């Protein structure tokens, strides 16, 4: 093999989060999360479904993790549900919850994947909300640090990569300020800034505690934030927050690397201030850059291109980014944003989320959701840029976690599917999406086979194959006896370029109607 064709050193795999996958909301000693309580009355969220059953991953975990090995994934990101571990926010840990994740970590390793553990992906215990108003209060900092210590004690012997808080901005902005999310406690901008601030301080405190421990030598900790790429970055102006990569980076990333919000974002918004001691604690509190990437924009916003109904070509993907729908699947961003972050912070990069949801118009049946030609096309355009990012731009990307492993719950909806493994949420009688009635059968999609082949050929894991270390809490896999893996031969055969059945206008219409229906993306 010529040197130029040699595989790059990068782990790759999939991600997911507890509330979006697990279901089992009151099984195994779990306490309610803020979402469980807010969505307890389905009438309050009539069209979108609840997280109570989700993909029932809690009861099918063995089957789901089996796909990692089958698809050749070398990394897997999952989140721990805080209320499954500490139903009362703090206090005595729930042994069944600890065992569930302990078994999960062992199984991930057995499948040949490196675990990336997210401590918090928005499913706050309702008990924290009741006791001190959750993220609005600085009491959350000690509560979160206490929870993190339970995780370190329980899983630190087998986990090296930790992600503290997923996307503080979405947790604070979407979940607190928008009525269709939970816990929806405030619409105030000041409360939103304080919530973000408390999140950063909670992260910094956890890292400070971790570094003081004797068992932390191999641990690497970071905080994943979502950021849009804008090309070229216009810098900071009063009107350009959502159109400026720099401003987003100054707000979401600078505290964990530089110890403070950047100067331009501070001029724009009245953010809370870090004391000198807090700045010292925050500086370099991220061991690596963790970025969730979905949007890549040009700044020109040209008019809609001609050929709306043409096949889903590279040019269309590029043009599509100029429009307003989400995500903007423009391949340049996959290369540009990690390079921008690496140039600024000079740390290893983990792409903690990257992916594409196929529009509803393309997936009105379970069979259609398996033959996900648009997602195959997305990866066909984007995946080679990840390789160029490492080979040509010399950015040390150590892992890429595609979002998501299985179709899951998008916080208030099952309508948009991000998975590389289909989950049958369709009511067999009506044919409509209904999580309570669907069989939840899994089937590998075309895109997962594409990924298996592309990344299998072009990457080698920097983590090697680690032995499963034995754990005091582990016995056998926690729950399901199901090991059957459904594979669609039609899907397997279709890892080549799609036929071009896509229609970008349909995508735009779908997205606009979803926005009107109150379904937002995070
Ligand atoms: C980012 C969030 O972390 C994840 O939970 C969500 O499903 C994806 N964006 C897609 O919206």
UniProtKB/TrEMBL annotation:
Belongs to the glycosyl hydrolase 1 family. GO terms for molecular function: beta-glucosidase activity. The keyword Cell cycle does not apply. This is Beta-glucosidase. Pfam families: Glyco_hydro_1 (PF00232). The lineage of its organism: Eukaryota, Fungi, Fungi incertae sedis, Chytridiomycota, Chytridiomycota incertae sedis. Coiled coil: none annotated. GO terms for biological process: carbohydrate metabolic process. Keywords: Glycosidase, Hydrolase. The keyword Hydrolase applies. SUPFAM superfamilies: (Trans)glycosidases. InterPro entries: GH, Glyco_hydro_1.
């Amino acid at each position: 093999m010529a040197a130029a064709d040699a595989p790059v050193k990068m782990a790759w795999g999939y991600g997911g989060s507890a509330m979006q996958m697990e279901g089992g909301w009151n099984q195994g000693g779990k306490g309610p999360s803020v979402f469980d309580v807010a969505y307890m009355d389905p009438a309050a969220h009539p069209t979108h479904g609840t997280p109570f059953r989700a993909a029932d991953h809690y009861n099918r975990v063995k089957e789901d993790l089996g796909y990692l090995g089958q698809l050749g994934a070398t990394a897997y990101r999952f989140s721990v549900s805080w209320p499954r571990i500490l139903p009362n926010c703090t206090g005595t840990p729930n042994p069944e919850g600890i065992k569930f994740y302990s078994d999960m970590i062992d199984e991930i390793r057995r499948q040949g994947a490196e675990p990336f553990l997210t401590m918090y992906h928005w499913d706050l215990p309702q008990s924290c909300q009741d006791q001190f108003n959750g993220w609005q209060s600085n009491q959350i900092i000690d509560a979160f640090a206490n929870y993190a210590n339970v995780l370190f004690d329980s899983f630190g012997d087998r986990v090296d990569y930790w992600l503290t808080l997923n996307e503080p901005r979405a947790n604070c902005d979407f979940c607190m300020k928008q009525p269709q999310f939970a816990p929806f406690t405030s619409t105030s901008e000041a409360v939103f800034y304080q919530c973000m601030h408390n999140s950063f301080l909670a992260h910094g405190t956890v890292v400070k505690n971790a570094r003081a421990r004797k068992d932390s030598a191999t641990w690497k900790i970071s905080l994943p934030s979502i950021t849009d790429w804008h090309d070229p970055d216009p810098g900071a102006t009063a009107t350009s927050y959502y159109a400026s990569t720099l401003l987003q980076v100054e707000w979401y990333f600078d505290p964990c690397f530089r110890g403070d919000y950047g100067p331009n974002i501070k001029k724009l918004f009245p953010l809370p201030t870090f004391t000198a001691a807090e700045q010292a604690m925050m500086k370099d509190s991220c061991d690596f850059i963790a970025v969730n990437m979905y949007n890549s924009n040009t700044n020109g916003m040209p008019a809609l291109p001609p050929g709306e109904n043409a096949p889903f070509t590279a040019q269309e993907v590029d043009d599509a980014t100029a429009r307003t729908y989400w995500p903007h699947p423009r391949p340049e961003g996959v290369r540009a944003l990690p390079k921008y972050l690496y140039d600024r912070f000079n740390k290893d990069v983990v792409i903690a989320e990257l992916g594409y949801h196929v529009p509803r118009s393309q997936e009105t049946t379970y069979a259609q959701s398996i033959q996900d030609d648009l997602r195959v096309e997305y990866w066909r355009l984007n995946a080679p840029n990840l390789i160029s990012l490492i080979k040509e731009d010399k950015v040390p990307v150590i892992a890429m976690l595609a979002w998501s492993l299985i179709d899951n719950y998008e916080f208030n909806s099952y309508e948009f599917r991000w998975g590389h493994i289909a989950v049958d949420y369709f009511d067999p009688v009506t044919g409509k999406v209904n999580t309570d009635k669907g069989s939840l059968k899994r089937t590998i999609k075309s895109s997962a086979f594409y990924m298996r082949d592309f990344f299998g050929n072009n990457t080698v894991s920097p983590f090697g194959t680690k032995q499963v270390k034995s754990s005091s809490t582990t016995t056998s896999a926690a729950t399901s006896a199901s090991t059957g893996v459904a594979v669609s031969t039609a899907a397997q055969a279709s890892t080549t370029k799609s036929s071009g059945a896509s229609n970008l206008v349909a995508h735009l219409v779908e997205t606009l109607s979803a926005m009107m229906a109150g379904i937002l993306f995070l």
